[in-house]
Fold this sequence. Notes:
Chain A has about 300 residues and is α/β, with parallel strands linked by helices. Helix content of chain A is about 35%, strand content about 25%. Chain A has nine helices and 14 strands. In chain B, strand 6 (about 95) and strand 7 form a beta hairpin. In chain B, helix 5 crosses helix 6 (about 185-205) and helix 10 runs parallel beside helix 11 (about 365-375). At the A-B interface, helix 4 and helix 5 of A face helix 8 and helix 12 of B.
Amino acid sequence: MSIWIHEDSKILVQGITGSQGMFHATRMVEYGTDIIGGVTPGKGGQSVDLPGRSVPVYDTMTEAVSDTGGEASIIYVPARFAASAIMEAADAFHELNGGGLIVCISEGIPTLDMVRVVAHIGQRPGVRLIGPNCPGIISPGESGGCKVGIMPGYIHTKGRVGIISRSGTLTYEAVAQTMGVGEGQSTCIGIGGDPITGTGFIDCLAAFEEDPETEAVVMIGEIGGTAEEDAAEWVAENFSKPLVGFVAGATAPPGKRMGHAGAIISGGKGTAEEKFAAFEAAGIHIARDPSKIGDVLLDVLIEAGLRES
Amino acid sequence: MNIHEYQGKALFREAGVAVQDGVHCTSVEQALAAYDSLGSEVVAVKSQIHAGGRGKGNLYSSDSDDLVMEGGVKIASSREDVEEYASNILGHTLVTKQTGPSGKLVNNLYIEAGCAIAHEYYLALLIDREENSVLIMASTEGGMDIEEVAENTPEAIHKTWVDPIEGLHDSQKNALADSLGLSGSAHASLVEMVGQLVSMFVDRDCSMIEINPLVKTEGDTMVALDSKVSFDDNASFRHPWRAGLRDLSEESDIEVRARAHGLSYVDLDGDIGCLVNGAGLAMATMDVIKLYGGEPANFLDIGGGADRESITAAFGIILEDPSLEGILVNVFGGIIRCDMVARCIIEASEEKGLNVPLVVRFSGTNHKEGKEILDSCELETITTSTLAEAGEAIVKVIGGDSS
Lengths: 309, 403
């Protein structure tokens, strides 16, 4: 098991005929993802050749979902069109399937567009958005697996550790370190580095708590906002599995945006120190050194009786 | 993107938000002409820089560091006052709580008609990340540092949120005016202003509008006596007019140049340059350097679409730092391949004349090939495969303490 996606999930690609869409759709199929179609307005009726299969292109998400039974979509459209692509997907999944998963990779979506998008999704129960500005979600399988994102698939192996992160490459770093101590992953989710995102830490933690195959979780935050503090508060009351936490940006100066639109200490709030303190207060095992995330995980698994050494 | 007070007030005027008459000036002559034209005996002479705390800041001579004047915002009651204050401000360096010790050179001045103030308030609109909406904050404690107010008297701050779909309800505007203890025409004036500000915030894709102080005049109307406006950079594509408001002299030259190459760069005080793919990993790399006893010289994310041109530019920018003692490259290959980065490093180091130790950590896509390329070339590099080894190696090689 895994959360939100599984080896047989049927995936649509919005923006499939673009260069990014084609490139990553190919990588996803190579990994084992079941891509069953795509959407590019104006290109309906065409088809796209992916490794070992040819998939149809539709003009709209409504056509794509009703024709293929797609359960999830991944969005590679330019930032200026991304908000309407997300809302189109949300409407199609809500009306036709009663829900669905949307993963938005696009970076640079205006914040007020995201405010409207998240409110729109909030009115469509069952629809989940991951991202934007994120690497996506991956659940490694026995051979291949389901990858709905841009992460390098081969660094992952099926296992029992869930990973949640606001970052892209730092998620891969965490994956590499869990592999370094001999642990695979159940599901890894990059929730995105923007100030306003769909799925947050708490949604992921709640799903991992319910997932029998996830036995421990690594949570990677960064400076800015209070999502980590809120998650810590939730964890203290509701989360029972071993949890390792790291926060990037202890050395970041205040008032400076550190690459991600959401990674900024403003008005003295959102520092790594506050977040680490909140993690500690909630009983989360903290790794202050990002090169020791794997080591801390190993200690925690041993302490929990989940590993001998 | 931030803009000056005088630019923010021009946008306020367009939105219908009440402001005093004022004139933007860049010379003492213009300041005097502005005084004559405003027809107000008392005027405010205001330094225009992007940082806050101007009123309590000090002006220093740009070459000798001598104190020229206390206070970057002055009330002038005569033509002579205007001349004195304008000459003390223009061409001098204003140091405030927010500028850091090096301060900001003041090239712009705003001369604004005086105002008979009955009371000062605080009003701000900003994105509330946790509530996923635009937050409006108001306080009766105007003219003060709002963070101090939030710390000491949080009950003095009133908050309301704009519904992303339905907008701001009239009842919310009225409640906000009530919470500030306003009545009569001042109450009506604030209700109208809040609606105008919400429209401006949304129409212009702002990330913040702050008015401190917002004043109630003796004539019982509300006037924005200050303006601090910043925009969401992600939305710049639909606001071409913003280009005309950008003051590049207010931005770090090196950060502007980095951005032109698709790089995200932030200057820091240390001596170990960093070149990393991904913002989170770049922060984590800085954190590791610090934990191993070193000090990062910069944050640098080369982004997901980095190529030979941008990696060469990144090296050039890092090497500009005179206190640089070493460079740590940390690349976790995904879409970016480590062998490509390795070739770029060799070319860039030749082109830019690399003269400090270089530690390279590769992981992910084609990391082995990347390491082989570096190990077999003439360029002296220390290659590592884990983040821990990389942190240890760079601190050790520059002679720091890597305990």
